[in-house]
Design brief:
Helix content is about 25%, strand content about 35%. It is of the alpha+beta class. Strands 1, 2, 3, 4, 5, 6 and 7 form a seven-stranded antiparallel β-sheet that branches. The two termini are about 20 Å apart.
């Protein structure tokens, strides 16, 4: 049996809090008109977290850099400078767009998240009203599929 087949479905309460907090922070940035680069937060077993931002390349390169950072942190057993031990969960968020059946696209905040022992997932939330403060609106996150686990 492959290791991926042994992974549990669902999301732990710790990962739910981590990913929800990251998504909330990204929504706050969008509401004030700030650009959301690729944002990554990684957490260890003790709840210590390290945050990273990627913006020096195109969006695809930054997403790949964030994914690579998770793998790097796992292999390095954490990030001593950030006070992070061996990573057990992560979430990354970035701006994107999701296509409709009619071929049009709508702005969306994309989220990827995973945890040791669990399957990894992606989700998205449509948004509109960037920079409108209280006029900023978003939808509840919708599932976008299962991903290759990084942890």
């Amino acid at each position: 049996m492959a290791a991926d087949e042994c992974r549990r479905d669902g999301v732990s309460s710790e990962l739910d809090v981590l990913s929800s907090t990251l998504m909330g922070d990204a929504f706050d940035m969008l509401a004030t008109g700030d650009e959301v680069n690729v944002l990554l937060v990684v957490q260890d077993e003790d709840g210590n977290a390290g945050s990273y931002e990627f913006s020096d390349d195109g969006i695809e390169q930054c997403i790949e850099a964030a994914r690579s950072k998770v793998l790097e942190l796992r292999h390095a057993m954490g990030d001593e400078e950030a006070g992070l031990g061996l990573p057990v969960r992560y979430a990354l968020a970035y701006e994107g767009a999701v296509g409709d059946d009619d071929g049009s696209y709508q702005d969306a905040l994309m989220l990827e998240f995973g945890e040791r022992g669990y399957k990894s997932y992606s989700a998205f939330s449509y948004f509109e009203g960037r920079g409108e403060g209280d006029g900023f609106r978003w939808t509840e996150p919708a599932p976008a599929g299962e991903l290759e686990p990084l942890i």
